[in-house]
């Protein structure tokens, strides 16, 4: 590879590619220990895990222990066919995960009673914020006031306050149970927690009517398991329903990752943030799934975006949907009934000893009044291995779930001072569930709120009852997908690298997976120690002073960094600093995040080489100097180039009093060779799901920590229920950015293990290998496709952009044709038309060996030859292997073959594929047809006949 590039060593290549002005030599000392073996890393993780006390969490507050069916744990969570898949931007080879996501959407719409659901949100609290923003956009009211249920989960309250402040939204916390809002109120919407944080179940239809009368929308956070027994949000007047699917078989994991959800009534479909899976048809007219309404994608809308959520929690959404598929409507209702009767039995026992409950109507949570004794009750429970919720000095909260046993209830009753002994009451496994039309009400649920309509009637939720059937269904879906376990996914800007099995192992350990995010500090010392180590390591490799691991997506890390900048300026009295400069080449989420942080976006031009235009930057800085808040810049650039002028760029912003946000998307090209903090960066987010090996999982989970210099550290995310005060600072210190104090904590052991087994030298070597591979591909393919951008040395960074526009002009073959033809060659296509239309951005990463890289190069050269054959008239422009790609087995077997090229050319363009062919399940999908005929729920079985 070096010979092809003309360098005698990898170090010489990197010294040339990375500008000398930012190059850092290997450190003599490091906070990162020398690389550990797999066995050593696992042993250290075991020692950390042992410091977490495996108590029985009964804290509730939106987080519940749950049983993950083994068939789902083994065949989804621990299966690389699912966790190494990428976002389904190539839908023809993503049909398995797209079907799982449409199952998820159907599950949510059925249970909420609303028309359309998206393919998951990041968590419940952020989904509530997004619901508020939907209400603001869609409301007929000009008001800037949003009513918030006083019985809202505390983490959701805090997140609403933090996000509303940046957008100038006024929140009014309202005890809806005391009296409904008057009909003449002036609000754009209201939020209701259902059931409430206190466990209270109530009919909010009067509130909904009053808000609707004012022209506002009603957003409801609803517990999906409770909705199997309770009337749906839609039936009570909700316009938007949000929440979490965590208790559908997804482990607690100290707070995540979990799949949030959002559903909307008819007419609000185009207001949905995030991703929406719909049904379309392929070139043969067969049903096929793909992402719907793709023009809403936030990287396209940029500063006009309505949300910066551009991802989902696909892996966790798949798990939750399969929990519903496996249990079915009757099984879910049985689980919910069991939970409700356990809560009833505990309530009856407590009442029998004259203890007062906050509400007589509840599903799974009780608030118990014990004046002056709350702390003692909680401590007694903890001594027996149970975690309860200390609401205040006079109140204790108890939440039961599907894992709660009669012995657990007896121990909790004892903690409240009741006599020891066998627990007598409801909640025994196997007890008859409440039928849909049964008039027998549950003791804790008002009869008027009992659900009587059917749900989950589609065959997919009523077929796979045995483990055999479920295993085969999951295998069938996985076989329809192309993931990293099949071959290279050379997506530029996405870093689809290996998720090593040893790194993944600890995710399933109960000491990490069955831990409540609000557990007492003494019970989570192992987690906190691991988090602290990872924060220190990330600070070192980035050149920053402090790191917050709370953001659970790159977009949320961006927002956290910009809110930190906002807080810093406010603390300094610079209230007018609201302008954010963003290069035209930047990731689209940058602009969306800036708007959500209360900033206005000013675009900076790029030159012909793809670099920031320094003259235009200086002009924009001068024009907005007094109002300049920040510059957002990606390094290396979005064009895959190390910009030579980066220090001049950051200095110009600092001289005007602004702060510099360095987007961490391309950190894979820097580790060990340069640091954001040395480039002039003040704050950055880091994509752990890219650079630090957390799986993409089909489009999530993600983790986007935010790292900052010391002066911004006090404004990094905080949390009202955190076990310890991190980054505490001044009066404008940061608020929460996600529902849990440490975000998606259960997958942090993956990045911890990655760094621990690589060591500082290994991280540096990985960067070198990635840059070498990208430059090798660029050099080998440059005579066939122009390489659009390169640095002054003629080298690229960790990715290269091939310009396919000349190919289209010469042959008529488009970038879409090349991408789909790559499927026939056994590859996932590179990133299409980003950041430049008509191009392919290729990132091989350091995980691919030379054989796989050569296979890709040969495929691209062969496709170029096929395109030239079309231009030469060998094949018609409208009937050739490229425009008809991808080719399914059915397409080449059924009926008479009438194309001017052979079946072998269609499906075996490389002879080696005869033994290892990946067969796409559908032909090229018609996206426009699907958008014209929007269907975002499970189609009838007859559609596939």
TrEMBL record:
Transmembrane annotation, as ranges: none
UniProt superkingdom: Bacteria
Cell wall biogenesis/degradation among keywords: no
Co-factor(s): pyridoxal 5'-phosphate
Gene3D superfamilies the record matches: Aspartate Aminotransferase, domain 1, Type I PLP-dependent aspartate aminotransferase-like (Major domain)
Residue ranges occupied by any Glycine cleavage system P-protein N-terminal domain in the UniProt entry: 1-416, 444-723
Keyword tags: Oxidoreductase, Pyridoxal phosphate
SUPFAM superfamilies (UniProt xref): PLP-dependent transferases
Modified residues (N6-(pyridoxal phosphate)lysine): 690
EC number: 1.4.4.2
Catalytic activity: N(6)-[(R)-lipoyl]-L-lysyl-[glycine-cleavage complex H protein] + glycine + H(+) = N(6)-[(R)-S(8)-aminomethyldihydrolipoyl]-L-lysyl-[glycine-cleavage complex H protein] + CO2
Keyword Oxidoreductase attached: yes
Domain spans labelled Glycine dehydrogenase C-terminal: 766-887
InterPro entries on file: GcvP, GDC-P_C, GDC-P_N, GDC_P, PyrdxlP-dep_Trfase, PyrdxlP-dep_Trfase_major, PyrdxlP-dep_Trfase_small
Family label: Belongs to the GcvP family.
Subunit annotation: The glycine cleavage system is composed of four proteins: P, T, L and H.
Role noted for this protein: The glycine cleavage system catalyzes the degradation of glycine. The P protein binds the alpha-amino group of glycine through its pyridoxal phosphate cofactor; CO(2) is released and the remaining methylamine moiety is then transferred to the lipoamide cofactor of the H protein.
HAMAP family recorded: GcvP
UniProt protein name: Glycine dehydrogenase (decarboxylating)
């Amino acid at each position: 590879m070096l010979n092809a590039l003309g360098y005698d060593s990898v170090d010489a290549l990197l010294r040339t590619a990375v500008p000398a002005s930012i190059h850092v030599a290997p450190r003599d000392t490091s906070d990162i220990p020398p690389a550990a073996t797999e066995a050593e890393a696992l042993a250290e993780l075991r020692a950390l895990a042992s410091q977490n006390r495996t108590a029985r969490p009964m804290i509730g507050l939106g987080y519940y222990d749950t049983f993950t069916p083994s068939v789902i744990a083994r065949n989804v969570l621990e299966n690389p066919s699912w966790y190494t898949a990428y976002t389904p931007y190539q839908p023809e080879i993503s049909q398995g995960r797209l079907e799982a996501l449409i199952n998820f959407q159907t599950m949510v719409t059925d249970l909420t009673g609303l028309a359309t659901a998206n393919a998951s949100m990041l968590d419940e609290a952020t989904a509530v914020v997004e619901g508020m923003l939907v209400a603001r956009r869609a409301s007929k009211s000009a008001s800037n006031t949003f009513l918030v249920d006083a019985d809202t989960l505390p983490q959701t309250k805090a997140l609403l306050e933090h996000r509303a402040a940046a957008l100038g939204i006024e929140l009014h916390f309202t005890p809806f149970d005391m009296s409904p809002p008057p009909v003449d109120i002036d609000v754009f919407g209201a939020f209701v927690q259902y059931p409430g944080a206190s466990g209270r179940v109530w009919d909010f239809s009067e509130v909904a009517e009053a808000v609707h009368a004012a022209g506002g929308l009603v957003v409801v956070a609803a517990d999906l398991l409770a909705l199997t027994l309770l009337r749906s949000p839609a039936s009570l007047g909700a316009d938007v329903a949000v929440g979490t699917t965590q208790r559908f078989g997804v482990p607690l994991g100290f707070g995540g990752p979990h799949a949030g959800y959002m559903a909307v009534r008819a007419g609000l479909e185009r207001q949905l943030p995030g991703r929406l899976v719909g049904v379309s048809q392929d070139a043969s007219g067969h049903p096929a799934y793909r992402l719907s309404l793709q023009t809403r994608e936030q990287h396209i809308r940029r500063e006009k975006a309505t949300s910066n959520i551009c991802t989902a929690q696909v892996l966790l959404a798949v798990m939750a949907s399969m929990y519903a598929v496996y249990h079915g409507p009757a099984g879910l209702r049985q689980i919910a009934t069991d939970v409700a009767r356990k809560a009833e039995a505990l309530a009856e026992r407590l009442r029998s000893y004259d203890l007062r409950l906050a509400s007589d109507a509840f599903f799974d949570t009780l608030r118990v009044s014990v004046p002056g004794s709350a702390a003692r009750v909680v401590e007694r429970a903890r001594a027996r291995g149970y975690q309860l919720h200390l609401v205040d000095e006079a109140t204790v909260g108890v939440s039961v779930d599907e894992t709660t046993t009669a012995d657990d209830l007896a121990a909790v009753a004892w903690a409240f001072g009741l006599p020891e002994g066998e627990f007598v009451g409801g909640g025994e496994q196997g007890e008859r569930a409440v039928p849909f039309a049964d008039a027998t009400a549950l003791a804790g649920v008002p009869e008027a709120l009992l659900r009587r309509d059917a749900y989950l009637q589609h065959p997919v939720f009523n077929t796979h009852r045995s483990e055999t059937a479920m295993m085969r269904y999951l295998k069938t879906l996985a076989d329809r997908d192309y993931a990293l376990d099949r071959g290279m996914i050379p997506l530029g800007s996405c870093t689809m690298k290996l998720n090593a099995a040893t790194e993944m192992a600890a995710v399933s350990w109960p000491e990490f997976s069955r831990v409540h995010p609000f557990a007492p500090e003494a019970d989570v010392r192992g987690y906190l120690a691991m988090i602290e180590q990872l924060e220190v390591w990330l600070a070192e490799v980035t050149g920053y002073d402090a790191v917050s691991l709370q953001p659970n997506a790159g977009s949320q890390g961006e927002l956290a960094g910009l809110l930190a900048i906002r807080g810093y300026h406010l603390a300094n009295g610079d209230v007018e600093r609201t302008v954010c400069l963003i290069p035209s080449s930047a990731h689209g989420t940058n602009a969306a995040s800036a708007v959500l942080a209360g900033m206005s976006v000013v675009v900076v031009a790029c030159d012909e080489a793809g670099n920031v235009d320094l003259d235009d930057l200086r002009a924009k800085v001068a024009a907005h100097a007094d109002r300049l808040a920040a510059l957002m810049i990606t390094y290396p650039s979005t064009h895959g180039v190390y910009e030579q002028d980066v220090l001049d760029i950051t200095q110009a912003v600092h001289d005007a009093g602004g702060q510099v946000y360095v987007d961490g998307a391309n950190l894979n090209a820097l580790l060990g060779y340069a640091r954001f903090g040395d480039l002039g960066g003040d704050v950055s987010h880091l994509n752990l799901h890219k650079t630090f090996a957390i799986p993409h999982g089909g489009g999530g989970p993600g983790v986007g920590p935010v790292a900052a210099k010391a002066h911004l550290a006090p404004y990094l995310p905080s949390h009202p229920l955190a076990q310890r005060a991190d980054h505490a600072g001044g009066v404008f210190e940061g608020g929460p950015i996600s529902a849990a104090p440490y975000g998606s904590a259960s997958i942090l052991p993956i990045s911890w293990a990655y760094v621990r087994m690589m060591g500082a030298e290994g991280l540096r070597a990985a960067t070198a290998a990635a840059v070498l591979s990208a430059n090798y591909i660029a050099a080998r393919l440059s005579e066939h496709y122009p390489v659009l951008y390169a640095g002054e040395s003629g080298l690229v960074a960790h990715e290269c952009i091939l310009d396919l526009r000349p190919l289209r002009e010469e042959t008529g073959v488009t970038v879409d044709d090349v991408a789909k033809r790559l499927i026939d060659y056994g590859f996932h296509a590179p990133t299409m038309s980003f950041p430049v239309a008509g191009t392919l951005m290729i990132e091989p990463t350091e995980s691919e060996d030379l054989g796989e890289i050569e296979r890709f190069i040969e495929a691209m050269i062969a496709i170029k030859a096929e395109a030239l054959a079309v231009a030469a008239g060998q094949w018609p422009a409208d009937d050739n292997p490229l425009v008809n790609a991808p080719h399914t087995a059915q397409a080449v077997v059924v009926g008479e073959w009438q194309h001017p090229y052979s079946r072998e050319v269609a499906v075996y363009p490389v002879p080696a594929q005869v033994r290892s062919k990946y067969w796409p399940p559908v032909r090229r999908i018609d996206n426009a047809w699907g958008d014209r005929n929007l269907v975002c729920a499970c189609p009838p079985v007859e559609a596939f006949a």
